[in-house]
Design goal:
By secondary structure, the chain is mostly beta strands. It folds into two domains: 85 residues, predicted glycosyltransferase like domains (Thrombin, subunit H, Beta Barrel); 119 residues, predicted glycosyltransferase like domains (Thrombin, subunit H, Beta Barrel), CATH 2.40.10.220. The chain contains two helices and 14 strands; from the N terminus they run H-E-E-E-E-E-E-E-E-E-E-E-E-E-E-H. Strand 4 and strand 5 form a beta hairpin. It is elongated and about 55 Å long. The mean pLDDT is 78.
Length: 217
């Protein structure tokens, strides 16, 4: 599916990723969709009139859609004029990169009370450290113990090189069969309710790491 299909799903509050000529991604929020243009809040994106950028729209449960666009207006509200038809990218809605040598600590949500508790503990409990296999702005893969269940909520604590530490609420979306040697399984977790700054930081790191690895091949 391409063409006008992604445009029909765009509306006030939708989020787009704008990638500038240097490959740096910025997340912007749609304010209004008009015939032939998209008005967005780009107050956090250093874009300039006349600049050609790559637009990416991630549709939940579907795929990524991409097109080129030209920036027509500057200031807080920026008007984007798509130059091509939207093309469907059949990859994941969020690009993932492998995280060699990085670790993640999984804890239970603080508001998940035990039977003998009347109020949440002041600090995370049941903290366990595992291997972080890959990460995206939507979730991560983790080599962990097989006792985690699909639908279980956890908090993922990890640090990415060049970025701050993250403490992201997540839900276990899938559990891949355990490794017969280590006895551990691969968990696929989906991040829940990310705020704009966390998602932007994850996007920034993923794109930057993809570019760095391409340039070192």
């Amino acid at each position: 599916m391409s063409g006008d299909a992604p445009r029909q799903r765009l509306g006030r509050g939708s989020r787009l990723v704008v990638q500038d000529a240097h490959g740096v991604p910025y997340e912007v929020v749609v304010e209004r969709v008009e015939e032939g243009s998209i008005l967005v809040d780009a107050s956090e994106a250093p874009v300039r009139p006349g600049e050609s950028v790559l637009l990416e729209h991630r549709v939940a449960g579907d795929a990524r859609y991409r097109t080129r666009a030209q920036i027509v207006e500057d200031g807080r509200a920026v008007r984007l004029h798509p130059l091509d038809r939207w093309e469907r990218d059949n990859q994941r809605a969020f690009a993932r990169v492998r995280t060699y040598g990085l670790e993640v600590t999984l804890t239970r949500p603080l508001d998940d009370l035990r039977d003998d508790e009347t109020e949440p503990p002041s600090e995370p409990r049941d903290a366990k450290r595992f291997k972080l296999l890959d990460v995206s702005a939507g979730g991560a893969a983790i080599r962990a113990e097989p006792h985690f269940e699909i639908g279980e909520e956890v908090v993922c604590h990890f640090e990415l090189p060049g970025e701050c530490c993250f403490a992201l609420p997540a839900r276990v979306a899938r559990v891949v069969a355990r490794n017969p040697t280590s006895g551990r399984a691969t968990l696929g977790v989906e991040f829940l309710g990310l705020d704009e700054s966390d998602r932007a930081a994850l996007l920034r790191w993923v794109y930057r790491e993809q570019t760095r690895r391409r340039n070192t091949r």
